[in-house]
Protein backbone atom coordinates (compact mmCIF):
# COMPACT_ATOMS: atom_id res chain seq x y z
CA UNK A 1 0.00 0.00 0.00
CA UNK A 2 1.26 3.48 -0.79
CA UNK A 3 1.15 6.51 1.49
CA UNK A 4 -2.39 7.49 0.41
CA UNK A 5 -4.17 4.15 0.56
CA UNK A 6 -4.20 2.49 3.98
CA UNK A 7 -4.39 -1.26 4.60
CA UNK A 8 -8.11 -0.91 5.37
CA UNK A 9 -8.68 0.46 1.85
CA UNK A 10 -9.21 4.06 3.02
CA UNK A 11 -7.79 6.95 1.03
CA UNK A 12 -6.84 10.08 2.97
CA UNK A 13 -8.69 8.54 5.91
CA UNK A 14 -11.93 8.27 3.91
CA UNK A 15 -13.79 5.20 2.59
CA UNK A 16 -13.13 4.68 -1.12
CA UNK A 17 -16.67 5.75 -2.18
CA UNK A 18 -16.49 8.99 -0.16
CA UNK A 19 -13.05 9.83 -1.58
CA UNK A 20 -14.29 9.12 -5.12
CA UNK A 21 -17.29 11.44 -4.75
CA UNK A 22 -15.44 14.12 -2.79
CA UNK A 23 -12.25 14.44 -4.86
CA UNK A 24 -12.08 12.10 -7.86
CA UNK A 25 -15.49 13.11 -9.30
CA UNK A 26 -14.85 16.89 -9.26
CA UNK A 27 -11.39 16.32 -10.77
CA UNK A 28 -13.00 14.31 -13.58
CA UNK A 29 -15.70 16.95 -14.17
CA UNK A 30 -13.01 19.65 -14.35
CA UNK A 31 -11.02 17.60 -16.83
CA UNK A 32 -14.07 16.97 -19.04
CA UNK A 33 -15.05 20.66 -19.03
CA UNK A 34 -11.47 21.65 -19.93
CA UNK A 35 -11.35 19.14 -22.79
CA UNK A 36 -14.73 20.36 -24.09
CA UNK A 37 -13.48 23.96 -24.07
CA UNK A 38 -10.34 22.97 -26.00
CA UNK A 39 -12.33 20.92 -28.54
CA UNK A 40 -14.75 23.82 -29.08
CA UNK A 41 -11.80 26.16 -29.61
CA UNK A 42 -10.31 23.89 -32.28
CA UNK A 43 -13.65 23.52 -34.04
CA UNK A 44 -14.12 27.30 -33.92
CA UNK A 45 -10.62 27.76 -35.36
CA UNK A 46 -11.17 25.35 -38.26
CA UNK A 47 -14.33 27.19 -39.34
CA UNK A 48 -12.33 30.36 -39.78
CA UNK B 1 -7.73 47.06 17.22
CA UNK B 2 -5.90 45.59 14.22
CA UNK B 3 -9.16 43.92 13.08
CA UNK B 4 -10.93 47.27 13.19
CA UNK B 5 -8.20 49.02 11.20
CA UNK B 6 -8.26 46.28 8.57
CA UNK B 7 -12.04 46.47 8.27
CA UNK B 8 -11.94 50.26 7.90
CA UNK B 9 -9.13 49.95 5.31
CA UNK B 10 -11.16 47.36 3.39
CA UNK B 11 -14.38 49.42 3.47
CA UNK B 12 -12.60 52.62 2.36
CA UNK B 13 -10.82 50.66 -0.39
CA UNK B 14 -14.11 49.30 -1.74
CA UNK B 15 -15.63 52.79 -1.74
CA UNK B 16 -12.67 54.24 -3.64
CA UNK B 17 -12.76 51.46 -6.26
CA UNK B 18 -16.53 51.81 -6.65
CA UNK B 19 -16.51 55.57 -6.97
CA UNK B 20 -13.59 55.40 -9.44
CA UNK B 21 -15.60 52.90 -11.52
CA UNK B 22 -18.55 55.28 -11.53
CA UNK B 23 -16.62 57.56 -13.94
CA UNK B 24 -17.28 54.99 -16.68
CA UNK B 25 -21.07 55.19 -16.31
CA UNK B 26 -22.51 57.28 -19.13
CA UNK B 27 -25.69 55.41 -20.14
CA UNK B 28 -28.40 53.12 -18.81
CA UNK B 29 -26.59 50.15 -20.34
CA UNK B 30 -23.38 51.12 -18.49
CA UNK B 31 -25.24 51.15 -15.17
CA UNK B 32 -27.33 47.99 -15.77
CA UNK B 33 -24.79 45.64 -17.39
CA UNK B 34 -21.49 47.56 -17.56
CA UNK B 35 -22.20 48.34 -21.22
CA UNK B 36 -21.64 44.65 -22.06
CA UNK B 37 -17.92 45.39 -21.88
CA UNK B 38 -16.49 43.19 -19.12
CA UNK B 39 -13.30 41.25 -19.78
CA UNK B 40 -12.96 37.50 -19.19
CA UNK B 41 -11.43 37.53 -15.69
CA UNK B 42 -13.45 40.44 -14.32
CA UNK B 43 -16.59 38.64 -15.57
CA UNK B 44 -15.45 35.30 -14.07
CA UNK B 45 -14.81 36.82 -10.67
CA UNK B 46 -18.12 38.73 -10.88
CA UNK B 47 -19.99 35.43 -11.39
CA UNK B 48 -18.07 33.75 -8.55
CA UNK B 49 -18.46 36.71 -6.19
CA UNK B 50 -22.19 37.06 -6.95
CA UNK B 51 -22.62 33.39 -6.02
CA UNK B 52 -20.40 33.44 -2.95
CA UNK B 53 -22.33 35.01 -0.13
CA UNK B 54 -22.25 34.99 3.64
CA UNK B 55 -24.06 31.70 3.26
CA UNK B 56 -21.03 30.24 1.44
CA UNK B 57 -18.35 31.40 3.83
CA UNK B 58 -20.39 30.70 6.97
CA UNK B 59 -23.30 28.42 6.04
CA UNK B 60 -21.22 25.89 4.05
CA UNK B 61 -18.70 25.59 6.88
CA UNK B 62 -21.65 25.29 9.28
CA UNK B 63 -23.13 22.45 7.21
CA UNK B 64 -19.70 20.76 7.14
CA UNK B 65 -19.61 20.94 10.94
CA UNK B 66 -23.11 19.44 11.22
CA UNK B 67 -23.04 16.73 8.54
CA UNK B 68 -19.40 16.18 7.45
CA UNK B 69 -18.93 14.54 4.05
CA UNK B 70 -22.59 13.37 3.96
CA UNK B 71 -23.56 16.68 2.29
CA UNK B 72 -20.44 16.97 0.10
CA UNK B 73 -22.78 16.91 -2.92
CA UNK B 74 -23.16 20.62 -2.23
CA UNK B 75 -19.51 21.04 -3.31
CA UNK B 76 -20.45 19.71 -6.75
CA UNK B 77 -23.91 21.30 -7.01
CA UNK B 78 -22.97 24.94 -6.40
CA UNK B 79 -20.05 25.12 -8.91
CA UNK B 80 -22.17 23.21 -11.43
CA UNK B 81 -24.86 25.89 -11.11
CA UNK B 82 -22.40 28.39 -12.65
CA UNK B 83 -21.47 25.92 -15.39
CA UNK B 84 -25.17 25.40 -16.22
CA UNK B 85 -25.79 29.14 -16.09
CA UNK B 86 -23.13 29.61 -18.79
CA UNK B 87 -23.80 26.51 -20.92
CA UNK B 88 -27.62 26.53 -20.90
CA UNK B 89 -28.35 30.25 -20.72
CA UNK B 90 -25.23 32.45 -20.90
CA UNK B 91 -24.10 31.54 -24.41
CA UNK B 92 -27.53 32.15 -25.94
CA UNK B 93 -28.47 35.20 -23.86
CA UNK B 94 -25.12 36.96 -24.37
CA UNK B 95 -25.43 36.57 -28.17
CA UNK B 96 -29.07 37.73 -28.12
CA UNK B 97 -28.10 40.67 -25.92
CA UNK B 98 -25.44 41.80 -28.40
CA UNK B 99 -27.79 41.43 -31.38
CA UNK B 100 -30.96 42.93 -29.86
CA UNK B 101 -29.87 45.36 -27.15
CA UNK B 102 -31.14 43.13 -24.33
CA UNK B 103 -29.96 44.23 -20.88
CA UNK B 104 -31.88 41.96 -18.46
CA UNK B 105 -33.67 38.60 -18.40
CA UNK B 106 -36.94 40.57 -18.37
CA UNK B 107 -35.82 42.20 -21.63
CA UNK B 108 -35.28 38.75 -23.10
CA UNK B 109 -38.78 37.52 -22.12
CA UNK B 110 -40.35 40.70 -23.55
CA UNK B 111 -38.33 40.24 -26.77
CA UNK B 112 -39.06 36.50 -27.04
CA UNK B 113 -42.83 36.80 -26.59
CA UNK B 114 -43.31 40.31 -27.93
CA UNK B 115 -44.87 41.32 -24.60
CA UNK B 116 -43.70 44.60 -23.16
CA UNK B 117 -45.91 44.66 -20.08
CA UNK B 118 -47.42 41.65 -18.25
CA UNK B 119 -44.65 39.12 -18.56
CA UNK B 120 -41.91 41.66 -17.95
CA UNK B 121 -43.66 43.07 -14.87
CA UNK B 122 -44.41 39.63 -13.37
CA UNK B 123 -40.85 38.45 -13.86
CA UNK B 124 -39.42 41.69 -12.41
CA UNK B 125 -41.68 41.46 -9.33
CA UNK B 126 -40.62 37.85 -8.61
CA UNK B 127 -36.98 38.84 -9.12
CA UNK B 128 -37.32 41.81 -6.76
CA UNK B 129 -39.01 39.61 -4.12
CA UNK B 130 -36.16 37.09 -4.18
CA UNK B 131 -33.56 39.88 -4.00
CA UNK B 132 -35.26 41.45 -0.96
CA UNK B 133 -35.36 38.14 0.94
CA UNK B 134 -31.70 37.39 0.14
CA UNK B 135 -30.66 40.92 1.13
CA UNK B 136 -32.21 40.57 4.58
CA UNK B 137 -30.27 37.31 5.02
CA UNK B 138 -27.00 38.97 4.00
CA UNK B 139 -27.42 41.82 6.49
CA UNK B 140 -28.25 39.34 9.28
CA UNK B 141 -25.00 37.49 8.44
CA UNK B 142 -23.00 40.74 8.53
CA UNK B 143 -24.45 41.67 11.92
CA UNK B 144 -23.76 38.25 13.49
CA UNK B 145 -20.17 38.10 12.23
CA UNK B 146 -19.25 41.58 13.40
CA UNK B 147 -20.79 40.83 16.78
CA UNK B 148 -18.95 37.51 17.24
CA UNK B 149 -15.59 38.41 15.76
CA UNK B 150 -15.18 42.10 16.49
CA UNK B 151 -17.56 42.41 19.41
CA UNK B 152 -19.35 45.23 17.58
CA UNK B 153 -22.96 46.14 18.20
CA UNK B 154 -25.13 44.04 15.84
CA UNK B 155 -27.08 47.05 14.53
CA UNK B 156 -24.03 49.30 14.13
CA UNK B 157 -22.39 46.64 11.96
CA UNK B 158 -25.41 46.53 9.65
CA UNK B 159 -25.52 50.33 9.35
CA UNK B 160 -21.79 50.60 8.48
CA UNK B 161 -21.92 47.88 5.79
CA UNK B 162 -25.14 49.37 4.40
CA UNK B 163 -23.56 52.81 3.99
CA UNK B 164 -20.47 51.43 2.22
CA UNK B 165 -22.32 49.14 -0.21
CA UNK B 166 -24.91 51.81 -1.00
CA UNK B 167 -22.16 54.35 -1.71
CA UNK B 168 -20.44 52.35 -4.42
CA UNK B 169 -23.48 50.65 -5.93
CA UNK B 170 -25.37 53.95 -6.26
CA UNK B 171 -22.28 55.63 -7.74
CA UNK B 172 -21.09 53.02 -10.19
CA UNK B 173 -23.77 50.39 -10.94
CA UNK B 174 -22.46 47.13 -12.44
CA UNK B 175 -19.07 48.69 -13.26
CA UNK B 176 -18.54 49.34 -9.53
CA UNK B 177 -20.04 45.98 -8.54
CA UNK B 178 -17.85 44.06 -11.00
CA UNK B 179 -14.60 45.84 -10.08
CA UNK B 180 -15.20 45.50 -6.35
CA UNK B 181 -16.34 41.88 -6.91
CA UNK B 182 -13.04 41.17 -8.67
CA UNK B 183 -11.12 42.22 -5.56
CA UNK B 184 -13.63 40.62 -3.18
CA UNK B 185 -13.51 37.35 -5.16
CA UNK B 186 -9.71 37.20 -4.94
CA UNK B 187 -9.83 37.95 -1.20
CA UNK B 188 -12.40 35.18 -0.56
CA UNK B 189 -10.67 32.55 -2.73
CA UNK B 190 -7.24 33.32 -1.24
CA UNK B 191 -8.54 33.69 2.30
CA UNK B 192 -10.54 30.46 2.39
CA UNK B 193 -7.77 28.43 0.75
CA UNK B 194 -5.03 29.68 3.08
CA UNK B 195 -7.30 29.30 6.13
CA UNK B 196 -8.25 25.72 5.21
CA UNK B 197 -4.61 24.70 4.65
CA UNK B 198 -3.42 26.26 7.93
CA UNK B 199 -6.36 24.91 9.97
CA UNK B 200 -6.03 21.35 8.61
CA UNK B 201 -2.23 21.38 9.11
CA UNK B 202 -2.72 22.65 12.64
CA UNK B 203 -4.99 19.68 13.37
CA UNK B 204 -2.47 17.13 12.01
CA UNK B 205 -3.34 17.00 8.30
CA UNK B 206 -6.43 16.02 6.28
CA UNK B 207 -5.95 12.27 6.74
CA UNK B 208 -5.80 12.70 10.53
CA UNK B 209 -8.86 14.97 10.52
CA UNK B 210 -10.80 12.38 8.50
CA UNK B 211 -9.73 9.56 10.82
CA UNK B 212 -10.81 11.47 13.94
CA UNK B 213 -14.12 12.23 12.19
CA UNK B 214 -14.91 8.51 12.14
CA UNK B 215 -14.40 8.31 15.93
CA UNK B 216 -17.10 10.91 16.68
CA UNK B 217 -20.09 9.09 18.14
CA UNK B 218 -22.13 11.97 19.55
CA UNK B 219 -23.97 14.91 18.05
CA UNK B 220 -25.85 15.32 14.75
CA UNK B 221 -25.27 12.66 12.07
CA UNK B 222 -22.57 10.87 14.10
CA UNK B 223 -21.67 7.65 12.31
CA UNK B 224 -22.31 9.16 8.86
CA UNK B 225 -19.84 12.06 8.94
CA UNK B 226 -17.34 10.30 6.64
CA UNK B 227 -19.97 8.73 4.36
CA UNK B 228 -21.41 10.26 1.17
CA UNK B 229 -25.04 9.80 2.32
CA UNK B 230 -27.09 8.47 5.19
CA UNK B 231 -30.06 6.12 5.65
CA UNK B 232 -33.09 6.44 3.35
CA UNK B 233 -35.38 7.95 5.99
CA UNK B 234 -32.98 10.36 7.74
CA UNK B 235 -33.69 14.04 6.95
CA UNK B 236 -30.96 16.10 5.20
CA UNK B 237 -28.64 13.15 4.44
CA UNK B 238 -31.19 10.77 2.89
CA UNK B 239 -30.19 9.96 -0.73
CA UNK B 240 -33.54 11.23 -2.07
CA UNK B 241 -33.32 14.47 -0.07
CA UNK B 242 -29.72 15.01 -1.22
CA UNK B 243 -30.81 14.46 -4.83
CA UNK B 244 -33.77 16.86 -4.65
CA UNK B 245 -31.69 19.52 -2.85
CA UNK B 246 -28.21 19.24 -4.39
CA UNK B 247 -29.08 17.37 -7.58
CA UNK B 248 -31.98 19.62 -8.66
CA UNK B 249 -32.83 22.68 -6.57
CA UNK B 250 -29.36 24.13 -5.94
CA UNK B 251 -27.73 23.67 -9.39
CA UNK B 252 -30.84 24.58 -11.40
CA UNK B 253 -32.09 27.28 -9.00
CA UNK B 254 -28.79 29.12 -8.66
CA UNK B 255 -28.17 28.83 -12.43
CA UNK B 256 -31.13 31.19 -13.01
CA UNK B 257 -30.86 33.29 -9.82
CA UNK B 258 -31.51 36.92 -10.87
CA UNK B 259 -28.27 38.23 -9.32
CA UNK B 260 -26.28 35.61 -11.27
CA UNK B 261 -27.97 35.12 -14.64
CA UNK B 262 -28.31 38.86 -15.32
CA UNK B 263 -24.49 39.03 -15.32
CA UNK B 264 -24.23 36.95 -18.49
CA UNK B 265 -25.19 39.89 -20.69
CA UNK B 266 -22.17 41.89 -19.48
CA UNK B 267 -19.32 39.77 -20.99
CA UNK B 268 -17.72 41.61 -23.90
CA UNK B 269 -16.52 38.74 -26.06
CA UNK B 270 -19.17 36.01 -26.57
CA UNK B 271 -16.60 33.70 -28.20
CA UNK B 272 -14.69 33.46 -24.90
CA UNK B 273 -17.70 31.99 -23.09
CA UNK B 274 -16.56 28.48 -24.02
CA UNK B 275 -13.60 28.83 -21.62
CA UNK B 276 -15.81 29.77 -18.69
CA UNK B 277 -17.19 26.34 -17.59
CA UNK B 278 -13.84 24.87 -16.40
CA UNK B 279 -12.85 28.19 -14.81
CA UNK B 280 -16.23 28.56 -13.04
CA UNK B 281 -16.21 24.94 -11.86
CA UNK B 282 -12.57 25.00 -10.74
CA UNK B 283 -12.81 28.23 -8.75
CA UNK B 284 -16.26 27.34 -7.41
CA UNK B 285 -15.12 23.91 -6.21
CA UNK B 286 -12.03 25.40 -4.59
CA UNK B 287 -14.17 27.89 -2.67
CA UNK B 288 -16.90 25.48 -1.65
CA UNK B 289 -14.62 22.59 -0.70
CA UNK B 290 -12.27 24.71 1.41
CA UNK B 291 -15.27 26.15 3.30
CA UNK B 292 -16.63 22.64 3.91
CA UNK B 293 -13.27 21.26 5.04
CA UNK B 294 -13.01 24.14 7.52
CA UNK B 295 -16.42 23.10 8.92
CA UNK B 296 -15.43 19.42 9.08
CA UNK B 297 -12.21 20.41 10.87
CA UNK B 298 -14.36 22.40 13.30
CA UNK B 299 -16.34 19.30 14.23
CA UNK B 300 -13.07 17.46 14.86
CA UNK B 301 -11.62 20.39 16.85
CA UNK B 302 -14.73 20.44 19.05
CA UNK B 303 -14.46 16.67 19.59
CA UNK B 304 -10.82 17.13 20.62
CA UNK B 305 -11.84 19.86 23.08
CA UNK B 306 -10.04 22.67 21.21
CA UNK B 307 -13.14 24.85 20.67
CA UNK B 308 -16.68 25.32 22.00
CA UNK B 309 -19.39 26.77 19.78
CA UNK B 310 -21.57 29.57 21.21
CA UNK B 311 -25.31 28.99 21.70
CA UNK B 312 -27.71 30.03 18.94
CA UNK B 313 -29.21 33.48 19.69
CA UNK B 314 -32.65 32.53 18.29
CA UNK B 315 -33.08 28.74 18.61
CA UNK B 316 -33.03 27.55 22.23
CA UNK B 317 -30.83 24.53 22.93
CA UNK B 318 -29.00 24.80 19.57
CA UNK B 319 -25.45 25.83 18.76
CA UNK B 320 -24.59 28.66 16.38
CA UNK B 321 -23.08 26.29 13.80
CA UNK B 322 -22.61 29.07 11.21
CA UNK B 323 -20.02 30.63 13.52
CA UNK B 324 -17.70 27.61 13.20
CA UNK B 325 -15.30 29.34 10.74
CA UNK B 326 -14.49 32.44 12.84
CA UNK B 327 -14.54 30.49 16.13
CA UNK B 328 -12.14 27.84 14.78
CA UNK B 329 -9.92 30.43 13.09
CA UNK B 330 -9.63 32.38 16.35
CA UNK B 331 -8.65 29.21 18.25
CA UNK B 332 -6.07 27.68 15.91
CA UNK B 333 -4.71 30.36 13.56
CA UNK B 334 -1.95 32.85 14.37
CA UNK B 335 -3.39 36.26 15.27
CA UNK B 336 -1.85 37.89 12.16
CA UNK B 337 -3.81 35.46 9.95
CA UNK B 338 -6.98 35.45 12.04
CA UNK B 339 -7.49 39.21 11.69
CA UNK B 340 -7.76 38.77 7.91
CA UNK B 341 -10.64 36.30 8.36
CA UNK B 342 -12.95 39.19 9.21
CA UNK B 343 -12.17 40.82 5.87
CA UNK B 344 -12.60 37.50 4.03
CA UNK B 345 -16.08 36.97 5.49
CA UNK B 346 -17.00 40.61 4.95
CA UNK B 347 -15.89 40.39 1.30
CA UNK B 348 -18.01 37.24 0.81
CA UNK B 349 -21.11 38.87 2.26
CA UNK B 350 -20.70 42.24 0.52
CA UNK B 351 -19.96 40.77 -2.90
CA UNK B 352 -23.49 39.31 -3.01
CA UNK B 353 -25.16 42.20 -1.19
CA UNK B 354 -24.04 44.76 -3.77
CA UNK B 355 -25.23 42.62 -6.71
CA UNK B 356 -28.61 42.04 -5.04
CA UNK B 357 -29.05 45.79 -4.45
CA UNK B 358 -28.31 46.48 -8.10
CA UNK B 359 -30.65 43.70 -9.29
CA UNK B 360 -33.52 45.17 -7.26
CA UNK B 361 -32.83 48.71 -8.52
CA UNK B 362 -32.78 47.57 -12.15
CA UNK B 363 -36.02 45.56 -11.66
CA UNK B 364 -37.83 48.65 -10.38
CA UNK B 365 -36.31 51.44 -12.51
CA UNK B 366 -35.53 49.76 -15.82
CA UNK B 367 -37.91 46.78 -16.03
CA UNK B 368 -41.01 48.17 -14.30
CA UNK B 369 -40.77 51.98 -14.55
CA UNK B 370 -38.98 52.49 -17.88
CA UNK B 371 -40.38 49.57 -19.87
CA UNK B 372 -43.82 48.98 -18.33
CA UNK B 373 -45.04 52.30 -16.88
CA UNK B 374 -43.28 54.76 -19.23
CA UNK B 375 -43.48 52.33 -22.21
CA UNK B 376 -39.79 52.84 -23.01
CA UNK B 377 -40.08 56.62 -23.27
CA UNK B 378 -38.24 57.85 -20.18
CA UNK B 379 -34.87 59.62 -20.18
CA UNK B 380 -31.63 57.98 -19.08
CA UNK B 381 -31.31 60.61 -16.36
CA UNK B 382 -34.72 59.75 -14.90
CA UNK B 383 -34.09 55.97 -15.00
CA UNK B 384 -30.74 56.38 -13.24
CA UNK B 385 -32.39 58.58 -10.61
CA UNK B 386 -35.18 56.05 -9.93
CA UNK B 387 -32.66 53.19 -10.00
CA UNK B 388 -30.51 54.84 -7.35
CA UNK B 389 -33.53 55.84 -5.23
CA UNK B 390 -34.84 52.22 -5.37
CA UNK B 391 -31.41 50.88 -4.33
CA UNK B 392 -31.24 53.25 -1.35
CA UNK B 393 -34.85 52.47 -0.31
CA UNK B 394 -34.45 48.67 -0.50
CA UNK B 395 -31.04 48.85 1.23
CA UNK B 396 -32.46 50.84 4.15
CA UNK B 397 -35.62 48.71 4.32
CA UNK B 398 -33.85 45.33 4.30
CA UNK B 399 -31.19 46.51 6.77
CA UNK B 400 -33.96 47.77 9.06
CA UNK B 401 -35.77 44.40 8.90
CA UNK B 402 -32.45 42.59 9.51
CA UNK B 403 -31.93 44.57 12.72
CA UNK B 404 -34.81 42.59 14.28
CA UNK B 405 -34.89 39.54 11.98
CA UNK B 406 -38.39 38.04 11.78
CA UNK B 407 -38.74 34.42 12.95
CA UNK B 408 -39.59 33.47 9.36
CA UNK B 409 -36.29 34.70 7.91
CA UNK B 410 -34.57 31.29 7.66
CA UNK B 411 -37.63 29.81 6.01
CA UNK B 412 -37.88 32.76 3.60
CA UNK B 413 -34.24 32.40 2.49
CA UNK B 414 -34.67 28.70 1.73
CA UNK B 415 -37.95 29.58 0.05
CA UNK B 416 -36.22 32.15 -2.19
CA UNK B 417 -33.87 29.46 -3.53
CA UNK B 418 -36.88 27.22 -4.13
CA UNK B 419 -38.68 29.99 -6.02
CA UNK B 420 -35.70 30.52 -8.35
CA UNK B 421 -35.73 26.82 -9.14
CA UNK B 422 -39.49 26.41 -9.56
CA UNK B 423 -40.36 29.77 -11.14
CA UNK B 424 -37.48 30.71 -13.43
CA UNK B 425 -35.79 27.54 -14.49
CA UNK B 426 -38.77 26.06 -16.41
CA UNK B 427 -39.63 29.52 -17.79
CA UNK B 428 -36.19 30.36 -19.14
CA UNK B 429 -35.23 26.87 -20.23
CA UNK B 430 -38.43 26.24 -22.20
CA UNK B 431 -38.44 29.80 -23.64
CA UNK B 432 -34.90 29.33 -24.98
CA UNK B 433 -35.14 25.70 -26.11
CA UNK B 434 -38.78 24.96 -27.03
CA UNK B 435 -40.09 27.04 -29.90
CA UNK B 436 -43.73 26.19 -29.14
CA UNK B 437 -43.62 27.86 -25.71
CA UNK B 438 -46.22 30.62 -25.60
CA UNK B 439 -46.43 33.87 -23.69
CA UNK B 440 -49.51 32.87 -21.65
CA UNK B 441 -47.96 29.50 -20.81
CA UNK B 442 -44.87 31.18 -19.38
CA UNK B 443 -46.96 33.67 -17.40
CA UNK B 444 -49.14 30.89 -15.95
CA UNK B 445 -46.11 28.70 -15.33
CA UNK B 446 -44.37 31.42 -13.33
CA UNK B 447 -47.45 32.07 -11.19
CA UNK B 448 -48.10 28.37 -10.58
CA UNK B 449 -44.43 27.77 -9.67
CA UNK B 450 -44.32 30.78 -7.34
CA UNK B 451 -47.61 30.13 -5.53
CA UNK B 452 -47.27 26.34 -5.25
CA UNK B 453 -43.71 26.64 -3.87
CA UNK B 454 -44.91 29.03 -1.15
CA UNK B 455 -47.89 26.81 -0.24
CA UNK B 456 -45.98 23.51 -0.28
CA UNK B 457 -43.00 25.14 1.46
CA UNK B 458 -45.18 26.48 4.23
CA UNK B 459 -47.04 23.22 4.69
CA UNK B 460 -43.93 21.03 4.58
CA UNK B 461 -41.27 23.14 6.18
CA UNK B 462 -42.82 24.18 9.48
CA UNK B 463 -41.50 27.75 9.71
CA UNK B 464 -39.32 29.22 11.13
CA UNK B 465 -36.76 26.43 10.78
CA UNK B 466 -37.95 24.67 7.69
CA UNK B 467 -35.86 22.91 5.16
CA UNK B 468 -38.92 21.12 3.87
CA UNK B 469 -38.00 17.87 5.56
CA UNK B 470 -41.54 16.94 6.49
CA UNK B 471 -42.44 16.16 2.89
CA UNK B 472 -41.79 12.48 2.17
CA UNK B 473 -41.99 10.16 -0.82
CA UNK B 474 -41.79 6.40 -0.23
CA UNK B 475 -40.71 7.09 3.33
CA UNK B 476 -37.83 9.39 2.33
CA UNK B 477 -37.80 13.14 2.90
CA UNK B 478 -37.64 15.27 -0.27
CA UNK B 479 -36.87 18.96 -0.74
CA UNK B 480 -40.16 20.81 -1.20
CA UNK B 481 -39.53 23.09 -4.28
CA UNK B 482 -39.53 19.99 -6.50
CA UNK B 483 -43.34 20.07 -6.36
CA UNK B 484 -43.50 23.69 -7.58
CA UNK B 485 -40.92 22.92 -10.28
CA UNK B 486 -42.99 20.04 -11.63
CA UNK B 487 -46.21 22.08 -11.39
CA UNK B 488 -44.64 25.01 -13.29
CA UNK B 489 -43.11 22.80 -16.01
CA UNK B 490 -46.34 20.86 -16.57
CA UNK B 491 -48.34 24.12 -16.70
CA UNK B 492 -46.05 25.66 -19.34
CA UNK B 493 -46.08 22.52 -21.48
CA UNK B 494 -49.87 21.93 -21.30
CA UNK B 495 -50.87 25.58 -21.85
CA UNK B 496 -48.41 25.85 -24.77
CA UNK B 497 -49.79 22.69 -26.41
CA UNK B 498 -53.41 23.88 -25.99
CA UNK B 499 -52.61 27.36 -27.38
CA UNK B 500 -50.68 25.91 -30.33
CA UNK B 501 -53.59 23.58 -31.14
CA UNK B 502 -56.01 26.49 -30.86
CA UNK B 503 -53.89 28.58 -33.25
CA UNK B 504 -53.66 25.71 -35.73
CA UNK B 505 -57.45 25.24 -35.71
CA UNK B 506 -57.99 28.99 -36.18
CA UNK B 507 -55.55 29.03 -39.10
CA UNK B 508 -57.27 26.07 -40.74
CA UNK B 509 -60.67 27.77 -40.37
CA UNK B 510 -59.29 30.95 -41.97
CA UNK B 511 -57.81 29.00 -44.86
What are the main properties of this structure?
heterodimer; A: 48 residues; mainly alpha; 0% strand; B: 511 residues; two-stranded antiparallel sheet; 18 helices; 2 strands
Structure, described:
The complex is a heterodimer of chains A (48) and B (511). Chain A contains one helix and no strands. Chain A starts with 15 loop residues before the first helix and ends with a helix. The mean pLDDT of chain B is 88. Chain B has 511 residues and is mainly α. Chain B has a two-stranded antiparallel sheet with strand order 1-2. The interface between A and B is medium-sized, with 20 and 28 residues.
Specify the overall morphology of chain B: globular
Rg from Cα of chain A: 17 Å
Largest interface: A-B, 20 and 28 residues
User: Whole-number average pLDDT of chain A?
Assistant: 79
Instruction: Give the percentage of residues in beta strands of chain B.
Output: under 5%
Contiguous runs where pLDDT drops below 50 for at least 5 residues of chain B:
none
What's the alpha carbon Rg of chain B, rounded to whole Å?
23 Å
The proportion of residues forming helix of chain A, as a percent range, comes to 55-70%
Main beta sheet of chain B: strand number and arrangement? 2 strands, antiparallel
The shape of chain A, in one word, is: rod-shaped
Number of strands of chain A: 0
Instruction: Tell me the total number of β-strands of chain B.
Output: 2
Order of SSEs of chain A: H
Average per-residue pLDDT of chain B, rounded, comes to 88
Strand content of chain A: under 5%
Record the strand order, biggest sheet of chain B: 1-2
How many individual helices of chain B? 18
What is the makeup of the main sheet of chain A?
none
The structural class of chain A is mainly alpha
